[in-house]
Every structure is written in structure tokens, then in C-alpha cells.
Amino acid sequence: MALSTHFKAALLLLGLLMTGLTQVPILASAPRGFWALPENLTVVEGAVAELRCGVRAPGSVVQWAKDGLLLGPDPRIPSFPRYRLEGDPAKGEFHLHIEACDLSDDAEYECQVGRSETGPELVSPRVILSILVPPKVLQLTPEAGSTVTWVAGQEYTVSCVSGDAKPAPDITFLLSGQTISGISANVNEGSQQKLFTTEATARVTPQSSDNGQLLVCEGSSPALDTPIKASFTMNVLFPPGPPVIEWPGLDEGQVRAGQSLELLCTARGGNPLATLQWLKNGQPVSTAWGTEHAQAVARSLLVMIVRPEDHGARLSCEAYNSVSSGIQERGVTLQVTFPPNAITILGSASQSENKNVTLSCITKSSRPRVLLRWWLGWRQLQPSEETVMDDSRTVTEPRPPQEPRRVQLGSVEKSGSIFSRELVLITGPSDNQAKFTCKAGQLSASTQLVVQFPPTNVTILANASTLRPGDALNLTCVSVSSNPPVNLSWDKEGERLEGVAAQPRRAPFKGSAAARSVLLRLSSRDHGHRVTCSAHSTELRETVSAFYRLNVLYPPEFLGEQVLVVTAVEQGEALLPVSVSANPAPEAFNWTFRGYRLSPAGGPRHRILSGGALQLWNVTRADDGLYQLHCQNSEGTAEALVRLDVQYAPTIRALQDPTEVNVGDSVDIVCTVDANPILPEMFNWERLGEEGEDQNLDDMEKMSKGSTGRLRIHHAKLTQAGAYQCIVDNGVAPPARGLVRLVVRFAPHVEHPAPLTKVAAAGDSTSSATLHCRARGVPNIVFTWTKNGVPLDLQDPRYTEHTYHQGGVHSSLLTIANVSAAQDYALFTCIATNPLGSDHTNIQLVSISRPDPPSGLKAVSMTPYSVGLEWKPGFDGGLPQRFQIRYEALETPGFLYMDVLPPQATTFTLTGLQPSTRYRVWLLASNALGDSGLADKVSQISITTPGLDQPSREPDYQLPTEQPAGPSEMPLLPVLLAVGGLLLLSNASCVGGFLWQRRLKRLAEGISEKTETGSEEDRVRNEYEESQWTGDRDTRSSTVSTTDVEPYYHSMRDFSPQLPPTMEEVSYPLGLRALEEENMAFPGHLYDEVERVYAPSRAWGPLYDEVQMDSCDFRWPGDRYEDARGIYDQVAGDLDPVEPDAIPFELRGHLV
Fold first, then answer.
1. I need a surface site. Which of 10, 779, 824, 1047 has the fewest CB within 10 A?
2. Is the pLDDT of residue 759 over 60?
3. d(Cα 832, Cα 747) in Å, to the nearest integer?
4. 297 vs 808, which has greater pLDDT?
5. Cβ neighbours of residue 504 closer than 8 Å, sequence gap 6 or more
């Protein structure tokens, strides 16, 4: 009781503390309490909710609380526009009315009565207002409203996801009106609190009966009166039924030839409906068909005209659609009855007299078979007859009595499906146009014999005798009977004339007569010509001819051989000849030049010869032009123009230098000149180069047109690159000359050493290795690397790549830092690529090992007491190697050994030998792991030293070796005097050192001379000097323009990544000089000298310093070739102008 009292006191105190509360007068005498309590309520979103609250509390404040939040006693509840208090406060009605409920109204509510004088505060039990949110949409996959194509019998997955709802809706699937079982559903949280979504998945296997039906997803919820639905239409594909052929008539397959056969093929069912086609013997004959979707049937009508060759043919109808597992087929075999479809007579029906004529009657088989019969006119020939007279024909021409016709009739023969019967006849003159007929049933074929005889006499008739130019002359040629008809033709001095055929006449022996006329419009050129008529029989190859000679009177006319252009050279002579024709002959000749008449009596520089020719001397360019000649006779006059052409020497005006071409392509080197005359043969071409080089142009095509000459190079080869000279000689000295360079671009060619390139390095992750790759190509080459076939990632800090370019020689150096045996002992592939192609080579990175045996051991010089040796070092195994010589005298037992110094040398002079002695010499290579052994035969030779009376033998070339560190011009005598004491202690060593120094000097001088020559020549040969340097520290790759002569394999003991690649930066002077189509290697001695990746300092300096070739300099060396413009100017200058003082005073000036 005490607790109740305290609770009521608290409520009363709360009521008193609230300010602005609505004071509701309640009768003081009424007891305090609730007469109507709120209850739990559930409404749908958007509906109206009302929570009831009825109190008996006079003088108390009543308000509602939502989730503990007091809404206030104001009936309008300003903070919640959709909330208000309903009812009569005087009656204690305080109902909470909520309009358009939404999810925010879903909460707990209580009605509270404030404490008053009449009693404590009152609080109703908490009630829950539940807001139901219906799902707004169903998301169906496949898309709702669409038509989904499925194949019958296959399983498909359908998913349906509801929109936000409260509570989570239930989803069901209906297939063709039937509920699908086995649905998996998941309830997930919605986009807002208290909202949920349902995702349901079903597996569906459609059948053909489901085609066109709906698959429906239904979502139901207490917030919905009716479920919401989403659906799509199923287009179920299934194969059609078998085809059916409707045969017209009772006997299936029985038809007649010529019959129009109509066959209907039907196939029912299927989605899509069946595709039908007709085949005959497996070959399609009709692919037309129609469909009726209402009846679900496909029909194809085959209409064909039956032919005899269709006998035994099989007609089949095939039905299928896009989901058919195979083609369904129905067929029928045709049985065709047919008569003979054609009859043919073979054999020549045209023949000369007394010749055998064989006629063969041929027809194909029929069902049933028919017989073959021969007829002559109206009479059938029997096999028993040997002589048959033809009394039906009447012969009107006077011919001797004819022999009876002899006929031999053969029997019927069969060959396959062909039947034949022969008729053999010996012809006579009366057999001309006899008719023979062969019959087979209702069919027949006829042929008519033709007996040939040659044409007879030919006569020409003319309508005039005196002729002048312009007259019309009509000539008629008449030929008598012939068989076959003859062809009449007219010609005049070999020129064919078109005639007009006359009316045909009746000729004897049923032959042909012919007449043909020709109308000639005469001209002076027809004088003396013969007009010939020829009657020719093509079959008999006989011709009969007659001719008529023309006599035409005409004024002077210049002949076709009249020279219209006369050629002369400046300061030379010229003769303008006259060739004129006239009937009668001409009487006078007059010449004019530029409107002025030349004196017939002659002048200082001309005279008119007998016959009308004009002679000129001391010709100048002013005399060039047209000269007019006038001559006459009794019939009239004539004029002619003769051109005098003054010639001069050629001058080159255009020459494209350089000319570039891809290897294997074709290119023209074009040379354009200014010359008179322009001659087709005035262009000539030469190829420039050193002695011994192939300079013939047999594989090139020389062409010229007008003032332009071309040297066409087909399928350009690398050996064709170089300098060419265009020589133009038109017969007027001096000839013109011009130089042009041909640059041949070619695909990369990587040098492939043998054996496989090897590089050795310790695999302890502390050593480095450098792989060299060199290729040749124009234009520049791009290098890529792979390791064991996988592209190398140059972003890896352990890899650094440098690329060098010099002309057509390109190199790539791949440096591998911290070599690991597990990762880096592999096969590296270098791939060289340019726009014309690519090539590659393999380099094996291996562990350090014993060295390989050296190769190429040979004697290069010999004296009675010494021999000079040269060799090529083998793979050093990755360690410093040295060489040792073992030798023996064959007559003395035991071996002698001598170490090669310096250790890296590839030449050595073995001393201490005896004259006229046979020796056997071995060369061994060794490093810290052992030696190469003596098993290799290429590292041993046998020699015989010369006697004292024989001269020492020296090689034809200088030994390649290293340059001494000091100047090559240092005198050797002071050096020898300075070290005299050393020479006395070691005589053999001094002699060897002296010879060594002399060879070094000779090598430097010899290679320098060759380098200078090669450098100049290389500038004139393949001029592709596109040098460049590119670098990127991030990618650790670079490109340098240079050439080098590194070996095929290298040791890594001297490698230092900080040092510049000395061997790669040295300009290689030979360029493409040694590049050949088949053998692309450099000279051997250059490779022998380069043993390490980076040679010692100044090892090659003086040798290459003597020839510095600028990689960007495209100019021709001035000491070898002249500037093109200078050449042209010199040629043009060679033609000195004619000085007036060089001609006598009386001969100067113009002709007129």
C-alpha cells in the first residue's frame, strides 16, 4: 500500500511540473482510472490507425508516449503532422489517430495520465502498432515479360527476388499452371530496418508441352489482398516428327520419262517447325518448304520432269530443325520407262570422189529397247543387199554413166548404254546431195552427202582504160561452178579489198558459181599496182587467180621513203634528200626556210644538188627547223616539209640518290637527262666497287623511255647494295655520268655460332653474366629476350639490357646480376625484329667448367728454327684460361712443353726448333678446373721446318694481335739496346719478343689500311646510318649506335657493371662489307682478337682511332667520289659553246 502511495505521488508531482499542459476539467467526484485501454494493432502501410484510450481522471493531463517519447498533451501533436487526439475530452476520450501509416509508425505506444489533486498518475499497458509493408515488385530472372527460348529436356535455373516488405513475403513458382516443388528460398535484410526481401530459386526442365506457356513467380504477404505476379513466356525448342512422302498413284516409284512428278513431303511438330529439303541421289534438288503454325506442320512440294537418266535415282526428303539430334529421312527409288531420247548420225558427209564414207547411227538405250534401220531416200536398206540403185533422183548435168552405189550395212552393236549401226559407202560424182536416214522407233536423223570438186577459170572485167587520181574503177571477177563454193577475194599489192557479191548463177553438177565486184577510188599511189582476184576453196586447198594492172597519171608526190627529219651535229654537215614520185617525172625543185627562198645557185653554207637534195655545212642551232620543198610537172605541183634536227650531248637533270628497297622487292633507279637525240639505247649502267667484286648487271633489267632511263632490280639482294653509275651516251660527245647509291633493307639475321653459344658464371648469387647477341638488318632492329621460352621481364633489377646500332650491324647485351644456378642456368633466346621480319639465336648460361679445346690451329709462318702458330680459343669455362704448347720431334722420343705468353694470346712463335725436322704440335687450354685434353684433332698439327738453304715462309696476311701500349712508331733498336742484358740472359725470349713486336706493328698498319678502304667503300655501299642512343634507368635498357666484334662466348671474370661496354662502343669500320647473302660472318681474325666482354684499356684504340666513321654522316667521301652536282656541272661544261670567232667571217650568221 505504501508503494502504491509513493507511485501516485510521483505521478502527481510530474503533472504539476509540466508547464503549458492542457487542463481538462473532470468531475471531482469521478473515480480515477482507465475505462478504455489501448490494444495491439496491425495495419497495412498507408492505412489509418487508431489506438483507443478512455480515462476517468478529473483535473489530470493525458498524453501518449511512442517508444518512450512523450508526444505532448496538445490534441494536434505539432511534432507529428499525421498524429492527432480524437474523441471528447469531457468524456475522457483521448484516442490516438494516425493518418497514412508508414514504417516509421511501427513502435510501442502507451497512454499516460498526469497526477492531479484527485490522485496519482496513470500509465496504460504498452501496446504495439505493427505496420505491414507489402512487396512492390518481383524481379524475375530471366526477365519478366520476355520470351525465353529453352530446349526441351534440359534443366534451367529460374530465380525470383521480392522487393522490400514486412514481413518477408512467400514466393512460389507456377509452370504451365502447376506449382513447382523443390524451391529454395532465402530471406535477407531489406534496404531499411525492419524490411526484408525473399530470394527464391527453382530448377525447371521444360517439355515440348510447355511451349508457349507461362512460368509465373507469385509473391504473397499478409499485407497483400492478392499475390503479386511476374512471368515470362517459354519458347521451348524440340525436334519435329519424321517426314512422310505422299506418292501419287498405287505403284510407288513407277514413272514415265517426260512425266511431271509432284511429291509432297510433310513433317509434323517441332519448334521451330521442321526444315525440309529434297535430295536426289544424295544431292539437294529443292530447299523450298512452307509451314503452317496453326497446325504445326511443315510441307515441301517437289516438282520435277522425269528424265530417262533418272532411272534408279533415289528421291529422299529430309526433316530437321536446330535442336534435332540427327536428320530424319524418307526416300523412294524411281523406276523410269522411256523411249530413245535422241538419235545421232556420226561421220563426215563431205568427201571427194571415190572416197570411203562411214556413217554411224547412234542412240542411247531405252526401256523397252528399239531397233535401228537405215534408209536411202524412201527405201529401207537391208543387210543382205550389197548394191542399191537410187532411182528417185534425176541428174541433169552431162556426166558419164554412173557405177551402181556400193553399200555395206553393219549389224547393231551395243557399248554400255549406247546402241550403234554403221553404213559404209564408196562415193561417186552422182552422190552429191544424196540423203541417208536412220530411224529408231518414232525418232529419225538424216544426213546429206556432199561430193567436192575444185573451181574452174576466173575472169576480170573492167569499165575504163585511162585513169587519173579520183576516178572510180569497177572490176568484176567471175568464177564457174565448184563444190564446195569458192571464196572470191580481191587484193591490191597484198592489201585486201572489200568487194560486193554478185547474184549467184546455176552451176552444173549441183555446184556453185560466184561473181564479185570491187569499186576502186584511184590515187597516185595505185600507179603500176596489180589488182588480183582469187577464187579459193578452203576444203580442197586450191586457188585460181587473175590480175589487172593500173596505169594512173598524177602530179608530183613525195614517196613514203621521203626523209622528213634529218639529223646533224653542231658544226657538222647535213643533207636534206628528196624522194618524189610523179607521172610524168617532175621538172623543177625550189627550197624555202622560214619564209625565205634559198638561192638555187647555192650560197656560203648551202647548195641544191641534182635531184633536188639540199646540202648544208657548218650547221648551227639556228639552222634547226622546217625546210619547205616545192616541185612540179605537167599534171601539177607538190610541197613537202623536211625538219633539220641539230643534236647535242646529254646532261643529267635528275637522279634519285640514295634509292632504297626492301630485300626481295623490286626497285627502279631512275636517271633523267636532257639530250638530243633521245635514244632508247643511250642509257648504260655500271656498278662501282673494288676489284674482284661481282660488278655484272645480268640479273638487273635496263629500261628507258624518252629522256628517262631505269635500272630495274628484281628481288633485290644484299650483295646488290652499293654505288651505281648512270652513263648516258646519245652519240654526241661527251657522254654524261652520274652516281647513285642503292640501299637494300633486309630482315634481321642473327649470327648463329657453332657450337651453341655459351656463357659461364658462378651460380652463387654474387657473380654477374653478360649475354651478347648480334644481328644484321636494315632498318634498325629491336631486340627482345626470353628465358626458356618465357619473355624476360626487363623490369627485374637483376637484368640490364643495352642495344647498339651501327649501320646494318646491331648488338644487344643482356647483363644478369647475382646469377643463381637455380634461376639463371637456362637457355636464353635473343629475338631480333624489324619491320621486315625477325630472327633469333640461343645462348646457354652454364656453370664454370674446364675450357673447351681450341680450334683452327695452323702454322702461319715458318723458319728453320721457329714456327708461327695461330688458333681460335674455345669456351674458357668461365675462368681465366691459358694455353700450353706440347710438341715433339718425330725422330726424337719425348715431349717438350712451352707456355703461351701473354696467356690470352692467340698467336705464338715456337722457337728452338731444328732445320729440316718433322714435328707434331699440340695445343692445350687450361683453367683452374683442368685442361681441355688432347683428344680433339683440331688442336694438333704436323709441320716440317725448312732447311737452311730454303727461304723462310711467311703467310700472305698479317697475324691479328693486340696493339702495344706505346706508339706504333717507336723505334725498336733503342729498346733492344736498353734491354741488352735481358737479351743475353734469355736469347730465345728476346727473339720471340722481337718477332712479336714486329707482327703487332704490321697488324696495326695492315688493319688500319684495310679499315680506311673499307670505311670509304662502306659509305658508298649500303648507306643506312640511322644511329641513335636511347636510355631508361627505370627499365635498365639502352640503345647505342655502334658496331663491335665480340666473340661468340665470353668469360665473366672481368665483368664490371659500372664500366662502359668498350667493345660495343667502338665504331666498326667494315660496315656491311663482309655481309653476304649466304655467309654473314665477319673475317675470322677479328673475332680471334676479341676474347673478353670488355677488352683491356687501349687494346684496340689506335686500330679504330685511325678510322672514325660518323654514324650520322651520310655524305660520300670526297676523296673517292665527286659531288653529284659537280659531276653534272662538269658534264655540262664539257660541251663548249661554239664561239663565233671559230667560224670564217663569210660563214657566220643564219642561212637566210
1. 10
2. yes
3. 9
4. 297
5. 512, 513, 514
Is 1030 within 8 Å of 990 (Cβ atoms)? no
Say whether the peptide bond before residue 779 is cis (omega within 30 degrees of 0): yes
**What residues does 628 pair with on adjacent strands?**
592, 641
Dist CA 501 CA 514 (whole Å): 8
Strands 855-863 and 837-846 come out as: unpaired
Rounded-to-integer distance, Cα 758 and Cα 870, Å: 23
Tell me the three cell numbers of residue 580.
618524189
| 567, three cell numbers | 639529223
What domains lie within the chain, and their CATH numbers? 41-132 (2.60.40.10), 138-237 (2.60.40.10), 241-337 (2.60.40.10), 343-380+406-452 (2.60.40.10), 466-552 (2.60.40.10), 555-646 (2.60.40.10), 656-745 (2.60.40.10), 751-847 (2.60.40.10), 855-944 (2.60.40.10)
Tell me how many helices (H) and strands (E) the chain has.
Answer: 9, 86
Cα dist. 524→27, 528, 579, 586 in Å?
Answer: 159, 9, 15, 14
952 half-sphere exposure, CB direction, 13 A CA radius: 12
For residue 894, the tally of other CB atoms under 10 A from its CB is 6
C-alpha pair distances (Å), 794 with each of 80, 485, 799: 71, 92, 6
Indicate if the pLDDT at residue 52 is higher than 90: yes
Lowest pLDDT segment from 275-289, 326-340, 1077-1091: 1077-1091
Dist CA 1071 CA 1014 (whole Å): 8
* Backbone phi, psi, residue 537, to 5°: -105, 110
Give the span between the Cα atoms of 858 and 955, in whole angstroms.
11
Pair 740, 713: CB distance under 8 Å: no
Give the Cβ contact number of residue 706 at 10 Å: 9
Question: In this predicted model, which residue has the larger pLDDT, 550 or 1020?
Answer: 550
From 475, 585, 561, 557, select the one nearest 521 (Cα to Cα).
Answer: 475
Average pLDDT over residues 103-118: 89
Question: How far is it, in rounded angstroms, from Cα 1144 to Cα 602?
Answer: 18
Is the omega angle on the peptide bond into residue 368 within 30 degrees of 0, that is, cis? yes
DSSP for 430-442, written as a single string:
GGTT-EEEEEETT
* Mean pLDDT confidence for 338-359: 82
Contacts of 695 (CB under 8 A, 6+ apart): 686, 687, 688, 689
According to DSSP, the residues that pair with 132 across neighbouring strands are 44
Identify whether the C-beta of residue 292 lies closer than 8 Å to the C-beta of residue 275: no
**Residue 157 banded pLDDT, cuts 50, 70, 90:** very high
Strands (E), 835-906: 837-846, 855-863, 866-872, 882-889, 896-899
Can you give 113-147 as a three-state secondary structure string?
ECCECCECCEECCCEEEEEEECCCCEEEECCCCCE
Convert 351-382 to b/e letters by CB count within 10 Å (16 or more is b): beeeeebebbbbbbbbeeebebbbebeeeebe
Do residues 278 and 316 lie in contact, with contact meaning Cβ atoms separated by under 8 Å?
A: yes
Q: Label each residue of 1003-1028 as H, E or C.
A: HHHHHHHHHHHHHHHHHHCCCCCCCC
pLDDT confidence of residue 966: 37
List, for residues 448-473, the tens digit of each pLDDT value.
888 887 776 788 888 887 788 888 88
Extract the C-alpha cell encoding 207.
Answer: 517439355
What integer is the mean pLDDT of 499-523? 82
Q: pLDDT by residue (tens digit) across 198-256?
A: 999 999 999 888 888 999 999 999 988 899 999 999 999 999 989 998 888 778 888 88
- Taking the C-alpha atoms of residue 582 and residue 635, their distance in angstroms, rounded to an integer, is 8
Q: Is 50 exceeded by the pLDDT of residue 983? A: no
> Distance between CA atoms of 361 and 414, rounded to whole angstroms?
12
- pLDDT computed for residue 177 by the predictor: 85
The grid coordinates listed for 482 are: 565448184
User: Distance (Å, rounded) from C-alpha 470 to C-alpha 464?
Assistant: 13
